[in-house]
Amino acid sequence: MKLSILFAALLCIGSGWFDHSAFGQAETRLRVERDFDENGFLQPVPVSISGFSGEVDSVLKHDLLFMGIKNVLPTEAKYLISGSNAGRVEGRVIQKSTKEQILAKAYTGSSQRSQAHALTDDIAKALTGLPGIAQTKVTFKVETGTSIGEIYIADYDGYNAQAVTRDGSLISAPCWGGRTTLFYSSYKLGKPAVFSHELTSGARHAVARGPGSSMSPAVSPDGRKVAYICDKGGSPNLYVCDADGNNVQQLSRSRDAESSPCWSPDGRTICFVSRERGPANLYTISATGGTKRRLETVNANNATEPAWSPDGKWIAFTSQRGGFDLFLVRSQGGVAMPLTSGEDPTWAPNSRTIIFCKGPDHGKVLSLLDVPTKQFKDIARILESNSQPSWAP
Amino acid sequence: MINMKLQKLLYWVALIAITVSAAGCRKGLEKTTLLPGYGAGAPGGKDSSTPLDPNAIAIKEGGIPVSERIGPDWKPSAEQPFTRETVYFEFDKSSIKQGETSKLDRIASEMKQKYRGKGLRVEGHCDERGTEEYNRSLGDKRAHSIREYLARAGVDPQMIDVVSFGEDRPAVSGHSEAAYAKNRRGEFVLLDPPR
What we know:
The complex is a heterodimer of chains A (393) and B (195).
Chain A: E1 2-9, E2 20-21, E3 28-35, E4 45-50, H1 54-65, E5 69-71, E6 79-84, E7 89-95, E8 101-107, H2 112-128, E9 137-145, E10 148-155, E11 162-163, E12 171-176, E13 181-186, E14 193-198, E15 204-208, E16 214-219, E17 225-230, E18 237-242, E19 249-250, E20 259-263, E21 269-274, E22 281-286, E23 293-294, E24 297-298, E25 304-308, E26 314-321, E27 323-330, E28 334-335, E29 337-341, E30 343-347, E31 353-358, E32 365-370, E33 375-378, E34 385-391
Helix pairs in contact in A: 1-2
Chain B: H1 2-27, E1 75-76, E2 87-88, H2 101-112, E3 119-125, H3 132-152, E4 160-166, H4 177-183, E5 185-192
Parallel strand pairs in B: 3-4
Antiparallel strand pairs in B: 1-5, 2-5, 3-5
C-alpha cells in the first residue's frame, strides 16, 4: 500500500522550550511517499546519516530506530540526513532522487543531547507523519531495596532519570494524568491507596483511600476520570471516580479478582482483566457502566496488562504460558499476534513504539520496542529492578 | 455438651471446606452458595435447623464489605500466635485448599475466645508467575477468601482486615516451584486496638 502525503515543511519556526534558529528560509511543499505493512504500520523509511559525531550521532540513530526510520547505506537510502554538531546541532534532510530539501534546522540551548532529540523529532514528523517521541517522558517503578519501591520519571530512552517519591514504602502502577501529574498506588498509609502527584509543585492528594485497598489507577485520556481496582465490597472490582476522588462508581461486580484497567483513547471504554471464566482474560466495559464483554485474544492465553494504543487501533497485552510474552490484538478483539518476550507494555504517543519490562522478579529491566519490526533495545537499569512503565501522553 | 457442639461445628466446617474446594476450582466462589445466613441450615445436612455458628453471617453476592473498624491505628500485638498457621494456595487459585482448613479453624477458635477484642490482619501473597497488578488483585482475593472462611466460622469480619502484597514480599527467593509454593500464601498478624 502506498500513500502519497502532501505536507508543508515550515522551516523558519522554532518550537519547544528552547530556542531554535533556522538556516533554511521559505516554506516549501513537498511530496513524501510512505509504504505501509499489512497491519497498517509504516514500513521503516531508509535514510543515510552523516556528519554527526559522538553522543549526537548515537542519539540520532537510536531515536530514529524507534520512530520508524532505519539507517542504511547511502545507496539504499531514500533520504539523506546530514549535518554537524560542532557547536550547535544542525541537520538537513534531502530526498535523494529529487534532491529536494525537506528539512533544514539548527538548534541552540540546553544540551547537545536535547538538541539531537529535537532534530530527530522534526525528522520523524517530516518523514513519517507521526509525532516525534524523542522528547517524551516515561514513568516507572524502581525497586530500591527489599519490598521497597519509588516512582521515577526519565526521558523515553532512560536518560535523566529522577526519583519522584521518597517514601520508603511499597508503591506501584504509576501512570500519567496529563503531562505534569502522576497517579500511583502507595502503601504509605498501610494498605494501597491511589494518590495524584503534581510534578511541578510536588503536591500530593489522596484520590482513593480506605476503607479497603485502592490499586492499579489509570487516568482517562482527558484527565478527568480515574479507573482503579478497589476491594471495599469484599472482592477486587473495577471502579471509576473523578480525578479529585469524587463521584465514585463501581463498574464491575465480580467475585473474582479483577485487575489492570486502561482506557480507550476516546475515553468511552475501559479494558481490564477478569478471571470470571477461570484464567485471566481481557474484557471491555463502558466507562459509564454496563455489562462487561470478553475481548477475544485468539492464540494468547492468560491475557493481562492491556494497553490501548493512542490511535485506538490496537491493544497490546501480556500473555503468560511459562514466561511472559507481549502480544498485539485489534481493539475489537481477534487473533493475537506475538511481539516479543516481556510484560507490561505501554504505548508511545506515536502508536508505534512500546516500552515494556522483562527479566526475573526483583531484577527487571525496561526495554523499547519498535512494534512493526519487533526490534527492541534495553535501557539502562536504575538500582535493582525497573517495572510498570507508563509513557507520557 | 460443649464437646458435642464442637464436634458438630467441626463436621460442618469440614463439609463446607469440601464444598468450597470442589466447587471453587473452576469459577472461584461466584455461583456457589456455600452457606446460608444465621438460623438457616447448611446445605446437605441432616439437622437443617442448626446454624453453623451463632455469629456466622450471610455472605452477599459481592463478598463481605471490608472492615471500617480496623484502621492504621491498630498495631501488631507483642504476641504473634499465628506465624505457624500460614495458609498456602494452589497456583493461580484463591480458594482455600482442603488441607489448609485446620489452620483456619484453629485461628477462628482462638480469635473467638482467647483473642476476643483483638483484630486480625490477613496478608495475601503470590508467587512471581503472574503480572504485578494481576497478582496484587489475586493476593487481595486470597486474603478475602480467608476472611470469608473465618467469618463463616464465626469470627466477626469487622475485626478482620485484609491487605495484598501481590508478589512484592516473597517468603523465599528463587525461581523454582518449591519457592513459588511457599510464596502463594496468606499470613496472619494479630492486632491490638488503639488505646
